[in-house]
Structures are given as C-alpha cells and as structure tokens.
Amino acid sequence: MIGTALFSRLTERPTLTTTYPEPAISVAHNVYQPQEDSRLLVDAMHHSALIPGRRVLDLCTGSGFVAIAAAEMGCASVTAFDICPHAVRCCGDNAALAGAAVDVREGSWLDAVDLAPFDVVVANPPYVPTPPGDDSGSIGAGPSVAWNAGSDGRLILDPLCEAAPKLLCDGGSLLLVHSAIAGVQQSLDRLKWAGMEGEVIASKWIPFGPVMSARAKWLEDTGRIPRGRREEELVVIRAEKP
Ligand SMILES: C[S@@+](CC[C@H](N)C(=O)[O-])C[C@H]1O[C@@H](n2cnc3c(N)ncnc32)[C@H](O)[C@@H]1O
Prior knowledge:
Elements: H1 36-48, E1 55-59, H2 65-72, E2 77-82, H3 85-98, E3 102-106, E4 118-123, H4 136-139, H5 157-167, E5 168-179, H6 184-193, E6 197-207, H7 210-221, E7 231-240
The structure holds S-adenosylmethionine (SAM).
S-adenosylmethionine binds next to helix 2 and strand 2.
C-alpha cells in the first residue's frame, strides 16, 4: 500500500485530511476554471510528497493551476501540455505572475513522450461521458474540450494509462484524477496491462456541476448512474513504474 498513513479511512476509499493552499491564478473565460478535481489532485500531490526535487509533467494543464502548485511545492522542473492555445496562453500568464518556471507547450498530451522521461506525471484530463451529438452549446459552462471524453469518458484515460510507462523513468509515479463514473477499475486494469501497479489514494464525493447535471438524464437512461443520483465520486489514482 502507498502512503496510507497520510489519509483517513472513514469512507470506503481514502479521503485527504488537509488541503493545500491554492495557487493564485486568473482564468480566461475559454479556459477550464480549476474545480474540485484540480484541488483534489493538488492535495494528493502534496500529501504524497512526490513533488519536491522531481521532474514533473502536468498533462492537460488548462490554467496551469496544477503545474504552478508543483512549482510552489519545490519540484526540480515542471513541463505542462495543453491542446488548447487559450489554455497555453493562460498557463503561461499565470506562471509568469506567480514567478513559477513552467515550461508550457501547446500540443496533445501524447507529444510529451518526445520529452520523456519524467519522475512524476500528474494529469486531470477530460473524463466526462459524452452523449452522441454535441450538447455542449446548451450547457454553456466553458470549453467542452476540457471535459468531453467519448461515450464512456475514457477517450483520453485509456491511452494515457497505456502510455504512462513511456512518460516515466523507472521508479516514476503517475497521479491521475478522474470521476469514478469513468471507471476506476478500468484505469487500474489499463495501468496493470501497461506494467504499472496503481491504487486509489484520495477520493471525494461532490455534487454534480453544470455539465453532469445537464447529462444526468442521459447518464440515467443509459445505466451509467443509478436513477436519482446527483453526485459523483472523484478519485486520485497513484501508479508506480517499477
Ligand atoms: C479538466 S481540464 C484540467 C485543467 C487543469 N489541469 C486543472 O486541473 O484545472 C482538462 C484540460 O485538458 C485539455 N485537453 C483536452 N484534450 C487534450 C489533449 N488531447 N491533449 C492535451 N490537453 C488536452 C483541455 O484543453 C483542458 O484544458
């Protein structure tokens, strides 16, 4: 088991007992506003003590919230990728404002393989199950590229879990946050298939936000959630490359 002493065991999955002070950032309207998933990932980074002195890769960086937190925690270096040019600009601006040395790059997360290996990979990728046809216009909650992830929510999760060993040095670690609705066991299975042992090190139940609320009926009708459920569990998975 990894670092279990750091977490309380009052619920079925581990929860974190303290929160890390948030980096001060500003977020453009067309960039993902850091939310509970962003905060849970940063808290897990802090509790795991994996970041200080390490070469960190932040995939799907958005505003740079997670990358800047890594810099503030004392990482040796932090490289950040996002496919959206608005996010890249926003991350660069926030890093400059915070005085954080973030090497931010525009591109798919997969492009980071060219810069590997890293000691630690952190990621808050899109993971929200998405109905056929684009309903994002009717939700109007921000950039849909930040959450839409195919019908099962695993459009990025699956390839990311499979590619994790290519991004990491031997002994390196992955911290990955997503909703349990996208399948915790699937992530653990994919990681295992790729040769990495993973486990949930943090979790938190939160009420549905605007995107999940707008999709709740479709999620119910397709059996992805029980009828009446309007909350989801976020999890942080830690996986190790041997
Ligand atoms: C849920 S947001 C997370 C943002 C930030 N890391 C945070 O925690 O607040 C996901 C981000 O992934 C980016 N993204 C989506 N598809 C991507 C891809 N294929 N490669 C890199 N980034 C991607 C989006 O632009 C968005 O900024």
